[in-house]
Amino acid sequence: MNTPNRRQALGAGLSLTALAGLSACGGGAAAGDISAGEPVRGGTLRVGVTGGNSADTVDAHIPVNSGDVARTVNLYNSLLTRTDDYKIQPELAESFEPNGDATVWTATLRPGIKFSDGRDITPDDVVFTFERINDPDDPKTAAASFTMLDEVVATGDRTVEFRLSEPNGLLDDSVSEYTTGIVPRDYDPAAPVGSGPYKLGSHTAAVSTVLERNEYYWRTDGNWLDAVHLLNFNDSDALINALLSSQVDAIAQIPLALVEVIGADERMAILNSETGMWLPFTMRVDRPPFDDVRVRQAFRLVVDREQMIEQVLSGYGTIGNDMFGPLSENYPDFPQRTRDVEQARQLLAEAGHPDGLDVELVTAPIQSGVVEAAQVFAQQAADAGIRVSIRRVDATTFFGENYLQWDFAQDFWYTRDFLPQCVSCVMPESPFNETHWDDPNFTSIVEEARSLPDPAARRNLEHEAQKILYDNGGYIIWGFANQVDAYQKYVGGLEPNATGRPLGGWRFDRVWIGKV
Amino acid sequence: MFAKVIIRRLIFSAFILLAVSLIVFGATLLLPGDAARAILGQQATPERIAALNEQLGLNLPAWQRYLEWLGGLFVGDFGTSTATGGPVSELLGPRIGNSFVLMALAAIISVPLGIGLGVYSALHRGTRRDQALTGISLVLAAMPEFVIGIALIAIFATSVFQILPAVTLAPPGQPVWLIPAQLVLPTATLVLVVTPLYRADDAGDDDRSPRLRIR
């Protein structure tokens, strides 16, 4: 018999290619008219997230992955919270005031607020919440911010005092974290009762969570949705496909390289938020060659920051100036550092490396963009004679026993204000001091600043501290990544949010599904 | 005689599975890092690691752990997952069930379809239709399954039409056939992959006897 000849096989191949080409034509729906319109009460929002696994939790105080945080933010409220532009604002507490020397902070709860089972939220519950967080046998995530907390005492029918062993001007920041959600005294994570806009309908780890409207939620505006379904996907391809085939209404955190493609679909809208999320390079200042400040300065000068943002973040980012806390009220306006290969070479020569030097950079896919940034840096550094050999490990190894010990590596942080971030990474007691920074002068400046609750009063101190890091620090902070999500145009109420948490900071209490 | 072939194939498969299990077990031993530290993550103190090792039985010699696991297989005990802490059978069960459903559906469609097309090809050997069919068959058989799958998703779910779901989102605990629409594309993919093979076999495409070549 005749096997198909070449002409026929070619014909078949061409028709298949044509079919593939068709698919690039995109959807034909008249989607230009779709918009969310005015808020509409009712409906179920289906949200796609990645990163879920068997360790998924609904516990208020130990969220780990993205889905956990989404659950925490919607099931629980804290005393304070952060606005879309990262300012502190009251949430369950209508005020949170320090005394004269910031050794006692007093929270005043809003009147008439209730848990999702209808019971009143009382100072007693606040006391229990912080006892649970700081339980010495089982400390929760936020415990690291409350080491100076002596006791929490209910002092009235709506007031609670936080008594500290030393002055702390940053307690309002600590209490605005989503890891400090207020829970009732008889809280049981297996059947959680919370203070947030939603209550738990059902939860299956690594698969889905159903959140239902909390009828007792204290906010009177918003709360449009009847329910939110959080659906977990194992990879971002399935996540994006689910959005494009309308199986979900919104997806969190799309790969930056695919923003154009997804946005080109007429039915879809892109939520692009500038944040303070940073993915630094970390140089250990106590190890050669980085123990010489001139080497650190040279490494910072060799970076082409615009190119980093273009290549690593596809342009979805803002330039960094080797300082963290960009959204802090007191973020200084120092001259923007730019690439200067000549100066870098000179500094290296002065430091005893006239022919450049060889370093190993440890990288891992701990966050999207990290490995790409390492590769771009290696290319840029070569121009100054810095020969970077990249050692790529998997995330588990990276966070294993050598985490915080690598000589030259990377890390990633969400948006924080300057002083709280200092406490996390550049103070002697910091749990995550990648650069092993330990400068007594710097430490005393920060300790003085953090005892002052008024940002205006500590402005000069913050600037002093930032200057030290700007001149001599061990971080190369080249930029701040945007948080980009995608959603169907009929979803309303999603606002750009600077915290780095996707989909408007996970604020589903503001979201509605418009009538199409 | 049929039974002999099947039994031989089964025994062979069993040997392959055994070899694979040995290789995977050996490979995991060689991987850097250790299970206890990975599980404990941030809370890994030496005492906690030692306690967890004890609890998970990771202190026993490798060959003993392997043989205990193997023995468990024969009584239907697939062990406990270190990741979830629950029985492995609970993790595998529903998923294997879903896979069987897919397999059965694809087989029900593709076997008769393939045989039918094959008979048609054999009866109409050499006609244009047969040649076209053979050509299409060839292309489909040569393409990897995931390419066919992606093409179907692009055409019917995301980019050209949006009439079928792209992802299977079966609510946990529910059998996957309760939402039949989500079975269409996976089944179609398997059918497109497998039917050409049945058809070619039946049409005798591999029959190279000279007398059939002369036209």
Poorly predicted runs of chain A are: 8-12, 18-31
β-strand number of chain B: 0
Q: DSSP strand (E) fraction of chain A? A: 15-25%
General shape of chain B: elongated
Beta content of chain B comes to under 5%
The CA-CA distance between the termini of chain A, in Å, is 57 Å
Overall helicity of chain A:
25-40%
Query: What number of structural domains do the residues of chain B give?
Result: 2
Share of residues in helices of chain B: over 70%
Average of pLDDT of chain A? 91
Largest β-sheet summary of chain A: 8 strands, mixed
DSSP helical segment count of chain B:
9
* Category from helices, strands and their pairing of chain A: alpha+beta
Total beta strand runs of chain A: 21
Label this structure with key terms.
heterodimer, A: 516 residues, alpha+beta, eight-stranded mixed β-sheet, four-stranded antiparallel β-sheet, 15 helices, globular, B: 215 residues, mainly alpha, 2 domains, 9 helices, 70% helix, 0% strand, disordered C terminus
Describe what this molecule looks like in 3D.
The complex is a heterodimer of chains A (516) and B (215). With 516 residues, chain A is of the alpha+beta class. Chain A is 27% helix and 21% strand. Chain A is built from 15 helices and 21 strands. In chain A, strands 1, 8, 9, 10, 11, 12, 14 and 19 form an eight-stranded mixed sheet that branches. Chain A has a four-stranded antiparallel sheet with strand order 4-5-7-6, with helices on one face. Chain A has a three-stranded antiparallel sheet with strand order 17-13-18, covered by helices on one side. In chain A, a hairpin with a 5-residue loop joins strand 4 and strand 5 (104-109). The longest helix of chain A has 18 residues, at 6-23. Chain A is globular, with a radius of gyration of 25 Å. In chain A, 48% of the residues are buried. By secondary structure, chain B is mainly alpha-helical. Chain B folds into two domains: 2-86, no CATH class; 91-207, no CATH class. Chain B has nine helices and no strands. Chain B has helices spanning 2-30, 35-40, 46-56, 62-74, 88-123, 128-142, 145-158, 181-203, 210-213. In chain B, helix 5 packs antiparallel against helix 6 (128-142), helix 5 (88-123) crosses helix 8 and helix 6 crosses helix 8 (181-203). Chain B is elongated, with a radius of gyration of 24 Å. Chain B starts with a helix and ends with a helix. Residues 209-215 of chain B have low confidence and may be disordered. The chains are: A alpha+beta (516), B mainly alpha (215). Chain A binds chain B through residues 1-4, 8-9, 11-13, 16, 19-20, 22-27, 29, 53-54, 204-205, 207-208, 231, 233, 238, 241-242, 244-247, 396-397, 399-401, and chain B through 32-33, 37-38, 41, 81, 83-85, 125-126, 130-132, 134-136, 138-139, 151, 153-155, 157-160, 162, 164-167, 169, 171-173, 204-205, 207, 212-213, 215.
